[in-house]
Amino acid sequence: MGQFAIDLSRLVEKAKGKQEVMVKKVMLETFSKVVNKSPVDTGRFRANWIIGNHSAKRITTTETDKSGKGAIGKIVADISAINLTGQSIYLTNSLAYSLKLDHGYSKQAPQGMVRLSLIEITSHYGG
User: Which of 39, 64, 71, 78 could form a disulfide with 108 if both were Cys (CB 3.0 to 4.6 A apart)?
Assistant: First the structure.
């Protein structure tokens, strides 16, 4: 996937001493939106949203997760365990067709997932 970023400076200012909690909250909301917007056939695509700390993880799994609850649960656990100070956190889906799906190939997600989720989050938090 392409590299995306949200300007978190306004969020940090609003958080006043609770920066890490706020940043994790926004990350979880964003990543959950991406998973939930992901089209579902077998559930393999949803199961392959994976968190990377320091660098993007270029791995895939044969697991399936039609509801997305398992993927979101893993994302919550991974983000909760990370100390964000000076860290880059990545959400990747390394299946061969992930970029195609994010560019609207699926009738279930004609606007994709990542850009749409980032637009919604940025709009919600005034970024």
Answer: 39
Separation between Cα atoms, residue 62 and residue 51, nearest integer Å: 16
For 92, the enclosing helix (H) or strand (E) is strand 89-92
Query: Cα–Cα distance between 93 and 98 in angstroms, integer?
Result: 6
Radius of gyration of the chain (CA): 14
CB 73 within 8 A of CB 9: no
Number of Cβ within 10 Å of residue 6's Cβ equals 16
Question: How far is it, in rounded angstroms, from Cα 29 to Cα 118?
Answer: 10
List per-residue pLDDT tens for the chain, 127 residues long: 444 445 555 655 666 667 788 889 999 999 999 999 999 999 999 999 999 998 999 999 999 999 999 999 999 999 999 888 888 899 999 999 999 999 999 999 999 999 999 999 999 887 5
Which runs of consecutive H residues, i.e. helices, occur in the chain? 9-15, 19-37, 44-47, 69-81, 98-102, 114-125
End-to-end CA distance of the chain: 22
